[in-house]
From TrEMBL:
InterPro entries: HTH_HxlR, WH-like_DNA-bd_sf, WH_DNA-bd_sf
Record-annotated HTH hxlR-type domain positions: 12-110
Keyword DNA-binding: yes
Key words, A-Z: DNA-binding, Transcription, Transcription regulation
Domain of life: Bacteria
A Pfam entry, by short name: HxlR
Name this polypeptide is given: Transcriptional regulator
Gene Ontology molecular function terms on file: DNA binding
Keyword Transmembrane in annotation: no
Organism expressing this protein natively: Actinomadura craniellae
Length: 128
C-alpha cells in the first residue's frame, strides 16, 4: 500500500473521518441502519451494550457527517427515524464486510488472545 493510498501523513482530515466511521459504535449503527430505517428505541434495542447517551452522540456525529439522516415527523407524540444517506450507502459495503469478518473470526481471535496471554504469563514468570 503506498503512502498516498492510506490516510496517515499529509491529510489528517481523512484520518479524522476514518476515526469517526471506524469507531466501535459507528460501525454497528451504520450496519444496523443499512438493513432498514429505524426509530431510536429500536436502534438501541438492536445494538447490544450501547448506552442511550452514546447512541445519541454517535447518531449526531454521523448525521453531521452526512452518513445518516434524521427524519422528524410532525405528529404527537413526536416520531423520529434514522436511515443511511446515499453517502452512507457507499460506506455500507465496507462496514458490513468488516463487521461480518469480525463475526466469522471471533473464535480464531479468542484463541489467539488466549495463546498470547499464556505466552506473556510464561515470560513474566521466567523473567520475573
Amino acid at each position: 500500500m503506498s503512502d498516498q493510498s492510506f490516510p496517515g501523513g499529509h491529510d489528517c482530515r481523512a484520518r479524522e473521518i476514518v476515526d469517526r466511521v471506524g469507531d466501535k459504535w459507528s460501525l454497528y449503527v451504520i450496519a444496523t441502519l443499512g438493513e432498514e430505517t429505524l426509530r431510536f428505541t429500536e436502534l438501541k434495542r438492536r445494538i447490544d451494550g450501547i448506552s442511550q447517551r452514546m447512541l445519541t452522540v454517535t447518531l449526531r456525529n454521523l448525521e453531521r457527517d452526512g452518513i445518516i439522516v434524521r427524519t422528524m415527523y410532525p405528529v404527537m407524540p413526536p416520531r423520529v427515524e434514522y436511515s443511511v444517506t446515499p453517502l452512507g450507502c457507499e460506506l455500507l459495503g465496507a462496514v458490513t464486510a468488516l463487521v461480518g469478518w469480525a463475526e466469522t473470526r471471533v473464535e480464531t481471535i479468542e484463541k489467539n488472545r488466549a495463546a498470547y496471554d499464556e505466552r506473556a504469563a510464561e515470560q513474566t514468570e521466567a523473567f520475573g
